[in-house]
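Final report, closing paragraph on structural work. Over the funding period we assembled a curated collection of sequence-structure pairs, and we close with a single example.
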Amino acid sequence: MVSQDENLIAIGELSTSTETPQNPGRTPDDEYEDRVELTYRMLVEGMRKSEIKAALKAQYQISARTAENYLARARLLQLEDLREERDVHRASSLAFYKSVLSDPQVGVGAKINAQKRIDQLLGLDVPFRVAIASANVGRDQGVDDIDSMLSVATVDELKVMRGLYERRSDRSSLAQ
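Its predicted structure, as stored:
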């Protein structure tokens, strides 16, 4: 006598295959990328690892290990972003600081700091000090020698320093 299961197998309604379904329990690729992107945004916002894992576990009902996998992938994306060209990073930073300046809810102090950073990014800030690269600066050295030892100085600052040096030299020669 033929069992009911054998009849179903004969008409193709019941598979005898022991194959498991393709990718059981695996998140579809597009959804996976969305989850990694969310994880990436949480990392960028400065959330701690434990907070990110808890948020992912609550939202997607996933294991701690799966959350770790999302974190690992998000960190790889961060590394890829760091490899972008310097100008891209500069433009991104500039856009951020401009958004701080235009936000009416941001305080004056934050706006001042944002403007300082914009000035630094664009190279508009000027050095406040002149640093001597060598401690061996003597009185008998020429102006050109001293100019070559200055590590951080603008052209105008060098002209002022040259004038001061020449005046000092003139005074010392008159005293002799």
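The two ends are 132 Å apart (CA to CA). The first helix runs from residue 4 to 10. We thank the funder for supporting this effort.
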